[in-house]
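Ticket #4471: structure export looks truncated?
Reporter: QA, pipeline team
Priority: medium

Steps to reproduce: submit the single chain below to the structure queue and open the exported record.
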Amino acid sequence: MDLFVPVFILFAAIVFLILLLTFVPVGLWISARASGVKIGLLQLVGMRVRKVVPRRIVEPMIKATKAGLSVSINKLEAHYLAGGNVDRVINALIAAQRAGIPIDFEKACAIDLAGRDVLNAVQMSVNPKVIETPIVAAVAMDGIELRAKARVTVRANIDRLIGGAGEETIIARIGEGIVTTVGSSASHKVVLENPDLISRTVLSKGLDAGTAFEILSIDIADVDVGRNVGAQLQIDQAEADKRIAQALAEERRAMAVAQEQENIAKVQGMRAQVIEAEAEVPKAIAAAFREGKLGIMDYYNMQNVISDTEMRNAISKANEPAHAEK
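Actual output as written to the record:
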């Protein structure tokens, strides 16, 4: 029993020391003090209580102190609690200081919280970025299509990073400038002979207004001749005109066929009337016989006249091919 109490006390002391070292980052405090960062153990404990990872604050503070930047630990902690990347902000401030770019801590934090990579923006201010546009097709006044590709050299504008448009806007405006330049050219040969005409026209429009970048140069990487759009449009128009003419001709043919059928119907109607009238002739002859108005000799004479007429018609029809051959 006498041995159990000292062992228990020793065990409890070891457990308390482990918990204390886990909760209180003594090693981080020692590193900070050795680097000249004035921070107390109670501040580190307070960070633990506020659910702030002390290492995310102390290590960037050490880098800022060594770089000669004057930054408050409270501001770093506030930026961390707001969801910002403290380490990236400090790295951006150090890079801006070395490059001579004027940017303060508040602006860097605002850029970081706006969702932009402030370190990448500072690096792009030092080392401009080249943006390559997709192939843009445009048609000159002579109907020839040109397909152009441009390389745009841009530099980040720190003052317009908050609220400024991104690379997509730059690419869209460059494409619009290419289409405008080619479309206003009287001939595609003018653009092929002077590709810098596109660059000058696009640069004069101030396409970087309202964006987070500053356009340094626009270089036309490639210009190729595409389709003959004008000729294709003429072919399509001719094909459309041909189809319209065919439709009108078909309409006239249908009307002619309908008129012909109507005439045939009229002729058939007239023939029916003639046949109906001829059917009344025997009845009239019979009635004349009964009434005594027509005698037998008159009837024979009439039949002779009819026969003579039919013979003359047959002879005339038989002689028609002979006259045609002569």
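Status: closed, not a bug. The export was complete when the record was re-opened. Leaving a note from the reviewer for reference: The longest helix spans residues 229-291.
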